[in-house]
Amino acid sequence: MNINHLETIQVVQKLAYRLKPADTAGVDVSVHPPFTSLRSAQTVIDADDLPIALGAQNCHWETAGAFTGEVSPVMLAKLNVRYVIVGHSERRTLMGEDDGMVARKARAVFAAAMTPIVCVGESLEQREAGATDEVVTAQLRASLEGLSPAQAAAVVVAYEPVWAIGTGRNATPEDAQEVCARIRALVGEGWGSGAGAAVRIQYGGSVKPDNASSLLGQPDIDGALVGGASLDPDSFAAIVEAMA
Prior knowledge:
This protein is of the alpha/beta class. The chain is built from 13 helices and seven strands.
C-alpha cells in the first residue's frame, strides 16, 4: 500500500528508462501497483510499448456480485493485467486468507486468462521449530488444488519466508534453493514431471541489488518477488539486471 497513481507513473517511466533491451530480452518484468494506480500504469505501459507487464496485488475469486470493496479477476483482465499475486503472506496473516481462498483465487485468475503468482512460506516460529518443509508442502498442495497439469506448469510460485520480509534478513542462497527445489519436486509429484520442470519459482524476502545475483544464480530459483526495493526504480532495475 505505497505510492499514488501519479507517483506510479513516474516510477514506471523511470524503471523503463533505466532498463536496457539486454536486461529484458530473456526476463519477464512486471509491476504490481495498488488498484487505484492500475489504470495509470496501464496507460503508460501501453502508450510507450514498454517491456513491462502489468500485475495486480490481489483479487477476489468471483467475477461479480455483492462483495463490496473487492475487485474481480475480470475487472483486472480488462486493464490488460497479466499477473495477479494471490496468497501473499500479508494477506494470509493480516486478512485471514487461508489456502482454500488462495486456491479459489488462483483458479479464478486462470479462468480470466491471467497468471497467478501463488505465495507460500513459513513464519519465524515455524522455521525455528523445523517445520519449514511441512508448512510449505501443505500450503503449496492446498493452494494449487484444482489446477490442471497445464495450469500447474504455467503458474508462478513465490517462496516468501515470512521472517525475511521487511526485516532486512534473508535466507541464504542455499536455504532458498533447498525450499525452491522442494517446491519444484512437489509440483512434479502432484501434477506431473512436465509441470515440475516448467513451473516458475520466485524467491521473495528482502531481495536487494547486493544479494540478487547469489539468490538468482541458484538452479531452482527462476526470479524474484521484489518488495521494498521495487519502489526505487534504480534498485529494481539492478535486480532485473542480475537476472539477465
